[in-house]
Write a structure and sequence with these properties.
With about 400 residues, the chain is mostly helical. Helix content is about 70%, strand content about 0%. The chain has 17 helices and no strands. Helix 14 crosses helix 15 and helix 16 packs antiparallel against helix 17.
């Protein structure tokens, strides 16, 4: 009876959360495409980035309440389950991210989808009373649905929602709800709404020899360090803005002036927005070696100053272009190194090696699985006790140290 009740409960909750998060991601992706196309056709919009930043900062400061914490608020509630996630988080992060991209900020989309999924999922417990453990599973479902639907990777979405807590308190009861919610959200976004995702490929896989695997270890170290650099850059810039500028709405205004000025002066339009075209190029042709550093800097400045958006697609950009640059010294296929960097830097910055490995196989094919897994694990181990989520509990990361 207990098993039947569990299955019925989470079939229902998972279906509802999947529909909500998948639909939210579909709307978000359509609006994001519109914002990107509009900006690319009207590059003068970059001049308005400071005003957009002030508007975003003003709304969050006066009306956002604890929504300003973003993904870290979700993590804190997954650990402690004290306060409800406000529904206002969904429209705030949705439109904040759209405006960031429309006017030329360098940001991603994962954070937006995860926050929308978690916020919408948590509204259910306002009408249906749940204990702390069931509410935690509900939030996990929201995270899984948001991640799975925004990238088209249902298995990785489920694993990410379980792995990113990294607290050593793994709960088997969460597995089925996370997987079910992720798949429902993916189906709703891609099949019901007809919103597709970017297609990637690694056309050539190197032989699985000891020397080739050793080269991936070397690359994985670089990916881990790049992930840590990405995270620390964002944290450092955020702390500097908070220290120097006391009125929060002014922070993204100043950040917008700096981003727009840098882009205008250096003609660095390649590095604003998501940067998906450049990511695709990284799988096909050699690129300037400094691409990954430029993306780290502009993304850190954008998000650290208070603009909204995710970090994951910029991490994909950073990893793919770093892998591309390493192909000059590492004798492995360019696309394979770009793919390993794509998920490896993501693994190092988020401390989720299993989710990143599975995501790589969902995006690039299972033939590259060993290389992807080795790159993600190495990057994870070499990135240290840090990451893009400041609320993430990393006390158990190096469990063998006690």
């Amino acid at each position: 009876m207990i098993l039947v009740r569990y299955l019925l409960q989470w079939l229902g909750f998972g279906l509802l959360v999947g529909i909500l998060s998948g639909s939210a991601s579909a709307i978000f992706l359509v609006l994001l495409d519109w914002a990107t196309e509009t900006r690319e056709a009207n590059l003068w919009l970059l001049a308005l980035l400071p005003l957009a930043g002030f508007g975003i900062g003003y709304v969050y400061y006066h009306y956002g309440a604890n929504s300003v914490q973003g993904n870290n608020l979700l993590l804190e509630e997954l650990y402690q389950t004290k306060n409800p996630i406000p529904l206002r988080m969904t429209p705030l992060v949705l439109f904040g991210t759209i405006f960031t991209h429309l006017f030329g900020g360098s940001a991603g989309r994962e954070g937006t989808a995860v926050q929308m999924g978690g916020s919408l999922a948590d509204q259910i417990q306002k009408w249906i009373p749940l204990d702390a453990e069931d509410r935690r599973i509900l939030l996990i479902c929201g995270v899984a649905g948001g991640f799975a639907s925004v990238f088209g990777t249902p298995w990785a979405g489920a694993i990410f929602s379980l792995e990113w807590m990294l607290s050593g308190r793994f709960r088997p009861r969460s597995i089925f709800p996370a997987v079910w919610s992720g798949w429902v959200a993916h189906v709703i976004c891609e099949w019901a709404w007809g919103v597709g995702h970017t297609s990637y490929s690694i056309p050539e896989i190197a032989p699985h020899t000891l020397i080739n695997l050793s080269w991936i270890l070397v690359a994985g170290i670089a990916f881990g360090l790049a992930g840590r650099l990405f995270a620390e850059t964002g944290h450092w810039i955020g702390a500097a803005f908070n220290k120097v500028i006391s009125y929060p709405p002014l922070r993204p205004l100043v950040g917008g002036v700096l981003v727009a000025g840098l882009v205008y002066l250096t003609d660095a339009y390649t590095y604003i927005g998501l940067g998906v075209p450049r990511i695709l190029e990284a799988f096909e042709t050699p690129l300037p070696w400094y691409d990954f550093l430029a993306k780290i800097g502009l993304t850190g400045l954008t998000l650290g100053s208070g603009f909204k958006g995710g970090e994951v697609t910029p991490l994909f950009f950073t990893g793919a272009t770093l892998g591309n640059a390493l192909s000059v010294w590492i004798p492995l296929p360019l696309a394979l190194l770009a793919g390993c960097g794509f998920v490896g830097v993501f693994s190092g910055a988020t401390n989720t090696p299993m989710a990143c490995t599975v995501m790589g196989m969902e995006l690039f094919g299972y033939e590259a699985g060993i290389f992807l897994g080795l790159a993600c694990l190495t990057a994870y181990l070499c990135s240290g006790k840090g990451g893009i989520y400041s609320a993430q509990d990393l006390s158990k990361k190096y469990f063998w140290r006690g």
